[in-house]
Structure formats: C-alpha cells, structure tokens
Design goal:
The protein is α/β, with parallel strands linked by helices. α1 runs parallel beside α6 and α2 (about 60-80) packs across α6. The strands form three sheets. Strands 3, 4, 5, 11, 12, 13, 14, 15 and 16 form a nine-stranded mixed beta sheet that branches. The chain has a six-stranded mixed beta sheet with strand order 6-2-1-10-18-17, with helices on one face. The protein has a three-stranded antiparallel beta sheet with strand order 7-8-9, with no helix packed on it. A hairpin with a 2-residue loop joins β8 (about 160-165) and β9 (about 170). The chain starts with a strand and ends with a helix. Helices cover about 20% and strands about 35% of the residues. The chain folds into two domains: about 5-45 and about 135-195 and about 290-325, 3-Layer(bba) Sandwich (FAD/NAD(P)-binding domain); about 90-130 and about 200-285, 2-Layer Sandwich (D-Amino Acid Oxidase, Chain A, domain 2). It binds flavin-adenine dinucleotide. The site of flavin-adenine dinucleotide has 41 residues, from α1, β2, β3, β11 and β16.
C-alpha cells in the first residue's frame, strides 16, 4: 500500500533514507523538510572521508558494526560511480604504541606521501573514499516534494503524524527524523528516549580553496590530525577539532592552534595559514557512540547519532530501516 512519508533533514542521513525509499517503496509519496539557514547540516561542513582507520572486527560491538557498514558503503561507492566521490588512499603515520597496535594488521607503505619532519615509526595505507558533500548529495534524484522550512511541531493524530512548519501543516503516515544534532529542538514534542543522550560535538578545520598540489587526491593522518587533498576540486583541508557539548559555530581557536602545531611538528609542507578559511560543523553523538536507526513510536522513525562515521554508516542503516517498513 502506498503511503505518505515525511523525511526531515537534508544531510547524508536524509539523502540515504530517500534513496532507499525510492528503490524499496517506489509508490510512496515523499516530502522532505529542511532548514539550512536555521539548522545547518553537518554533512556540508564535513571533511567527509570514508575509511576504516584501523578498525577491525572482533574487538568491540562498535568496531564490528563499523566494519559491516564499511563493507556495504565501499561497494555502494564502488558500484555507484557517484559524482563528487573519489577512490583514494588514507596514509597514517604511526608513532605511539597504542596506534601501532591498532594498525598492526594494516599494510605498510614503502614511502610516505609527504616528507615527515618527525619520522614516524611506521607508515600504513588503507583504501578510502573522499567525498565532496555538495556535489555528491546534489547528484541524487530530487524529484520529490521539498520544503525549505523548519519543522516546529510534530503531533500524533489518530492514524497519522501532523508535521507543523511556519508555512503550514501536513499529515503523513510516517515521519523519519534525520535531524542530526538539531533533534534536540524536538525534545518534548516527540517520544525519543533512544535519542535522549544525544549531544553536539563541534568540528572545525582549516580549508584552502584553489590549492593546486599533487596530481591525485590523498588523505594523510598523524596524531589524530587529518590532512585531506582533493585534486578534483583543488581543496586542501586540515583538521578537525572535536569539542563535545559545543554546538556553536564560533570555532575554538585554541584547539585549531593545537592542530596547526601538531601539523608543523610532523609535516614538512609549508602552508600559508593566513589564506585558510575556517569551516565548522556540528556532529551528533549518542552516549554509546553508536548510531541509531529505528522506530521511536508508531509511524515515527529516526536515523541519527552518526558522529564521525556518517559517510560509512548512513547507507547501510538507511537501507535496513526502510526494509522494515510495512
Ligand atoms: C568537521 C567534520 C568532519 C567530519 N568528517 C567525517 C569523515 O571524515 N568521515 C565521516 O564518515 N564522517 C565525518 N563527519 C561526520 C559526518 O559528516 C556526519 O556524521 C553526518 O554528516 C551527519 O549527517 P546527518 O544527516 O545525520 O546530519 P546533518 O548533516 O547535520 O543533517 C541534519 C539535517 O536536519 C535538518 N533539520 C534538523 N532539525 C530540523 C527541523 N526542526 N526542521 C527542518 N529541518 C531540520 C537540517 O536542516 C539538516 O538538513 C564529520 C563531521 C564534521 C562536522
């Protein structure tokens, strides 16, 4: 039976949900709500590299889940040949014992991508996917109703859900919340105990546009600092900070200064920081650090808590969620 479905959000969670709804439930009427002005999506301020970063199975539930999501998304990116997605390598420079143990199973590289100032004890390389969020998310089918409006209320009617915005009210059989960190604004309006522990985590990074460099895109990581070069869009990014319980768009300059210091200590590359823009996005993290995809109440669903793994976890979780719909 065809249904009317409201998807709230326009980031990677909402895009993946709509993608699978269109494939698995082609007769449903989909209406999308989002508000980039009032609730900026983390997805568009994301350094967006999908990689395992040394995660392997058999050590934790979170690690097992991430490996499963990686298997799915790796194939998804491979087969999809999507605009804005480039297959690349992530090189990690390992210095301390904990890192060496974590990456023990990852193949060693014969030489490092960039000259190191502080020689790492080991250099390893993994496959990764580098994503340009704007181009990639815009490449999905948009032939459904879309409203640029903040959802200010959600109310259960005898059969359905009433979605309220400043532009009007609409009734839907199902509502799927892909609201990232802004889910907290709906607290009290919807039963969402599963998302009660959700908190913000501010991420800021340096970005150089029009940066012409190597011939290929690459991702480099050392001491938790990531340097990403996207040859296709000639952009270099260095970051990002992780500041829990902070949902401000005012970047934490102390933490950025630490990133710059670590970069200058480890890497020989000279960068002109006066030319860098600072970008900030707000991630959403649940106490378990695991994402949530499920039913909050009859007809009300959510995909959230993607934290630092949105580009790996959104696709498999959205497919699983949409497959449960009757
Ligand atoms: C600096 C940074 C670097 C990152 N790097 C990586 C990385 O390398 N690899 C990786 O996998 N992940 C990374 N992440 C994490 C990843 O970007 C996120 O997990 C992912 O983008 C979250 O997507 P989302 O769709 O859940 O939320 P969002 O992208 O935040 O989208 C939420 C959407 O909900 C809408 N919304 C919310 N409330 C309402 C409302 N009441 N009414 C209407 N609309 C509403 C918003 O407008 C928005 O469109 C990074 C994040 C940041 C900030």
């Amino acid at each position: 039976m065809s249904q009317s479905v409201a998807v709230i959000g326009a980031g990677v969670a909402a895009t993946s949900v709509i993608h699978w709804l269109k494939i698995l439930r082609p007769l449903d009427r989909i209406v999308q709500f989002s508000s980039e002005n009032l609730a900026p999506a983390a997805s568009y301020k994301s350094t967006a590299v999908a990689a395992l970063r040394g995660t392997r199975t058999g050590l934790s539930a979170l690690g097992d889940e991430l490996c499963e999501h990686w298997e799915f998304s790796d194939q998804f990116y491979q087969q999809g040949k999507h605009a804005g997605v480039v297959e690349s390598v992530l090189e990690t420079w390992l210095s301390d014992d904990k890192e060496l143990r974590r990456f023990a199973h990852v193949p060693e590289a014969s030489a490092s991508l960039l000259p190191a100032r502080l020689q790492p004890r080991r250099v390893v390389r993994e496959k990764c996917w580098m994503i340009d969020p704007q181009v990639f998310l815009a490449s999905f089918d948009r032939s459904h109703e879309q409203h640029s409006s903040l959802v200010t209320g959600l109310q259960r009617t005898p059969q359905n859900w009433l979605v309220k915005t400043q532009q009007g009210e609409w009734e839907f059989t199902k509502v799927i919340l892909c609201t990232g960190v802004w889910q907290r604004w709906l607290k009290g309006l919807v039963p969402a105990d599963e998302l009660a522990t959700l908190v913000p985590s501010q991420g800021s990074y340096f970005e150089w546009r029009g940066f012409s460099f190597e011939e290929k895109s690459f991702a480099l990581s050392f001491q938790g600092v990531n340097l990403h070069y996207r040859h296709d869009i000639q952009t270099l990014q260095l970051g990002a900070t992780t500041i829990k319980n902070n949902d401000s768009f005012s970047p934490a300059h102390d933490a950025l200064a630490e990133i710059r210091k670590t970069f200058e200590e480890h890497c020989e590359l000279n960068l002109d920081f006066s030319q860098a823009q600072i970008q900030t996005g707000i991630r959403s993290i649940l106490k378990s650090r695991r994402p949530y995809a499920g039913q909050l109440a009859p007809g009300l669903f959510a995909l959230n808590g993607l934290y630092k793994n949105g580009w790996i976890s959104a696709w498999p979780l959205a497919k699983k969620l949409c497959s449960t719909f009757e």
